[in-house]
Amino acid sequence: MRWFWVDRFTEYVAGDRAVAHKGVTLSDEFIHDHWGGYPVMPNSLIAEGMAQTSGLLVSELYKFQELVVLAKFTKLEFDGLVLPGQTLKYTAQIGATKDIGAQATVTAHVGDHQQAHAEIFFARMHADSAGREEMPEKLFDADDLCHWLHVTGVFRVGVHQDGSRMHPSEYGLPEYTG
């Protein structure tokens, strides 16, 4: 993944819910190009942060071994602007899961104010799906994925629903040494 719209996870319960944060700063390049002279975080990037937070939960349902892609936002609402110096808190919850994919509900808050709310459906791409032969098996190299999960704190705070700690080896990922 080239752009990360999540800085760290402070809660991660495998197959259930996650809480992630994104600090917005004046040093973020996108801030200056969105509305000239009025730096705000674009709503499209807030939506992407919501998708990354919930998409990671959905991908983990399949042990990070299958291609899972954002299929659609079934609901997406924004309320207000996010300014430099503020921190977005993304809270994602897995909803309905089916053989074809899973739904997640995500909110974005700045302090006590709900800035955005979304319902997102992620499709699970099966090997026998039409056009699948043209798609990569995975979106991430295992080392890159493991690095991102460690940097954002997923394995530091991540637990299974029974409270036991998550470990990279459970998902066929290498231990992070960086």
TrEMBL record:
Alphabetical keyword list: Lyase
EC numbers: 4.2.1.59
Any coiled-coil regions, as ranges: none
SUPFAM superfamilies the UniProt entry points to: Thioesterase/thiol ester dehydrase-isomerase
A single MF term (Gene Ontology): (3R)-hydroxyacyl-[acyl-carrier-protein] dehydratase activity
Lyase keyword on record: yes
Name this polypeptide is given: 3-hydroxyacyl-[acyl-carrier-protein] dehydratase FabZ
Species the sequence originates in: Pirellulimonas nuda
Name of the coding gene: fabZ_4
